[in-house]
Each structure stands twice: as structure tokens, then as C-alpha cells.
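Thread: "does anyone have the structure for this chain?"

Original post by V.I.:
We have the sequence but no experimental structure in hand. Need at least a predicted one for the grant figures.
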Amino acid sequence: MKKSILSILIILGLAVSTTYATDFNVSIGFGGDIGLIFTSFDTNIPEPYKSTAEEVLKNIDQNRVGFWFYLDITYFEIDLGGKFYNATIKQNGFDLKETQNYFNIGLMGKYPFSINKIMFFPFIGFDWQILTKVKGTQGGYSVETERSDLSSAGIDENYFDCLVFNFGFGADFAITNHLYIRSILVYGINAHTKYHEDQIDIIKDAGYNISILNHGPSIKLALGYKF
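Reply from O.Q.:
Generated one for you, C-alpha cells below.
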């Protein structure tokens, strides 16, 4: 019995010695990310319009890629970078392809802890994505719209800007005492833009309900430097 208790205490002691909250430190880094976008959709608009809308959504393939610079202050990370949303709308004939470019500002709150010299951290945060340009291509034709073009057309420049709520888990793998690789798995939920809110209001004013939400996972990799 005493030997069993001693064995348990030794195991607990080893666990405590290898798992602990990190000390305060500051680091910077640069990396890229890639992810998928899914659309959750439900409405009570009548047929055949509902089926048509569902069919259109099924024929849209979406993904997002990006890059980011970050400043890590132990329990917080501040991000600056770019996001690129790519959508392919499958049609009879030539597919329609659209790319939306955003300037991204992000903030993450995290709790880092170490296990066997690997730094882990669960986190929550958000990205504020500011539209800079949209490019649509179909066949041999393409059209680009810059952010400044929106004002010229009488549209609020913030009309398509988007807030994305993020949560996930990350890990830092040391290369040297200062260099490390950061790997992050993120799940993002996109809030409605002003454009989306206006379209939803139009449907609701007509007496129908609609629920639509973009969301999806991303993988982020970066090279960091710890001071």
C-alpha cells in the first residue's frame, strides 16, 4: 500500500515538474495561414426560391489564406497582416471567381503553459478585417473595385468590413533559446457585415426569416523570435 502511494506521489511530482505556467516574455514573429469557409443557412422563404438559394450556396467553394506579423506579450498577441477570401461560383459555362482582399488587425488573449519544453496556449480573440480590394474574374474578363471606389459610388467604405471571432489552441516549438516555430489551430466565426445586415433586413421586411453564417477552421504557422 505504501509503495502504491509513493508511486502515485512520484508520478504527480513528475507531472508538476514538467507542466507549469510560463514566465513573462516578449516575442515577435511572422507567418501565414490557410483555412476553409463553411456557410450555415436556413430560411422560410417559399419554394422554389429557397431551393434555388440552397443550390447556389452548394455551388460556391470558399477558402481563405493570409499572412501576419505579431507581437506576443505572454498573455496577449497583437496581429497585423492581410486576409484573402477566395470564392469560386460554379456555373454553366465559365465559373465566376472572386477574391476579397482585407487588411487585418487582430487581438488574442491566451494562457500559455509548458509541457516538456513545448509551450501550449488555448486562446480567444478577434480579427477586424478591413476591405481593401475586390476582384471578380469570369472567362477572360476581370473587374477590380478598390476601397476608394465605394465612396465614389455612394457606398459607405465600411460597408463590407468584417469582425471575426476566433478561438483555438496553439503551440510553440523551440529551435534555439530565441527562435521558435508557432503552430495554431483556429476556428473563426464571421459576424455579419453591414451589407449582410441590410440584405437580411430586406428579407425580414418581406415577412420571412433567414439565418446565414460564415465560419470555418484555419491553420497558422509562424517563425518567432523571443527577446
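V.I.: this helps a lot. Confidence is low (pLDDT under 50) at residues 12-20.
O.Q.: and The two ends are 49 Å apart (CA to CA).
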